[in-house]
TrEMBL record:
One GO molecular-function entry: thioredoxin-disulfide reductase (NADPH) activity
Pfam families: C1_2 (PF03107), Thioredoxin_8 (PF13905)
Protein name per the record: protein-disulfide reductase
E.C. number(s) listed in UniProt: 1.8.1.8
Keywords: NAD, Oxidoreductase, Repeat
Organism listed in the record: Vitis rotundifolia (Muscadine grape)
Amino acid sequence: MDGEDGFAVHDVVSVLSSPNRDYLIRNNGNQVKITSLRGKKLGLYFSASWCGPCRRFTPELVEVYNALSLKGDFEITFVSADEDDEMFKEYFSEMPWLAIPFSDSDTRDHLDELFRVSGIPHLVIIGENGKVLTDSGVEIIREYGVEGFPFTPERIKELKEQEEVAKREQSLRSILVSDSRDFVISANGMKVPISKLEGRLVGLYFSLSSYKLCVDFTSKLVDVYAKVKAMGESFEIVLISFDDDEESFNEGFGSMPWFALPFKDESCRKLARYFELSTVPTLVMIGPDGKTLHSNVVEAIEEYGIQAYPFTPAKFAELEEIEKAKQEAQTLESILVSGNRDYLIGKHGVKVPVSDLVGKNILLYFSAHWCPPCRAFLPKLTEAYHKIKAKDSGFEVIFISSDRDQTSFDDFFSEMPWLALPFGDERKESLSKMFKVQGIPKAVAIGPTGRTITTQARDLVADHGADAYPFTDERLQEIEAQYEMAKGWPDKLSHGLHEEHELVLTQHQIYTCDGCDEEGHVWAFSCEECGFDLHPKCALEDGKGTEDDAMDEEKPEEGWICDGKVCFKA
């Protein structure tokens, strides 16, 4: 039966029972009568031991359950998707609530179907009257924890409205103080009142001590923090940790000179939601007035270090101007020469001076043998390289390796016809930082002046091959114009220069027109059987579209819209 708002209403006792069973079980084997659930809110938890997201969510649910079970009006029933009784028992031993016996597969299957479970973990919340309050229990618990109780749409709406008010009236106290805590802690366990931080610039550092990116950034942040404090500035940092165990938290926090929220503090999840956290490490800057100054200054600290302090809009505008000036002054030698390292290597380790490449178009190719997308992209880039070199011998590619050892580097470089930085060269790190290389393969195009043309050359080569050269905005506009022009051309045509077969409109990177003997790009009318190619200009002068194309070009009847394949009533 459905309620007035469309949510289903169930008799919990009949839904959870079977002809031979009127009880649920606890993980110690005790039986609990299903009738004892009447008058309580009930969570049906669909989960399995083999499911990674389930194993990560269950501890969060346990925490919420333990906080709510003291009231006596909330219960959870585990509906297992495990494959055998042993796996069920092992997983159920971690849960303080009830379960459908593993042996009753008919009821478990029926509940899956009744509540339309298409993925796990899945948590359905049922009210005291049997009405389904929400089937998004997992998302609600993840976002709001125990604060989401009683998990009704009205409660979630109320919480969202509270958050909006909090953002409008934000202060350091509203961010960091909770009902049970008005302090942060130092590494030695001392409680420091949050009032001591008011009026200061405060960084909220969201981190996970086991995550390498966080470990690497923490060391840089420690350096910046020490320098700012040495300047006598009113600056503090508060760690908001996502560590799962206290030992990891203590070990990570022990190396930090700033404050933290206590381990597993209820505000950690709340703050992640409040600041719409999408990644770690994240460092949110709160100004002396308690308002958010910047949502994440990690990248700024990575790039500029203490120069980014005090992280104000004015400072970022200043850094942007500095960056523009650097880009304007950039030369090939300024990015590729470091001390006495003023060379690249070719085949057999032959040294090629960077000065030999000045004034040429260069592609910096960040890649590695262990990376499957890199290996898949290499043939495409190699093909484009040869075609570009055929018309511009000055063009060059430089391989910048992320391989783990010399052998892997040598094996991968042996497949490439271009130059490379030597394996393990210190310039690799500065180039990765300069061009913000966060994933590979990546290709950066450098023009004849030494300035950066684009950092998205990998996508351009993948989409257009050699035809994208020299990767400038002007060239891309030409390509887009050619694509736009093609919309009015027929898909097929017959031509007097090739009467044997129809010519089909196809995409080509570079070809020689068999009509005018000139080079063509992007589009050609081609014979798939003979390899005959005509430039659209030549083909359309004498070509005649097929009957289907002529029909496509007719205007539709009034009141109809045609997309070239089907006509619809307007």
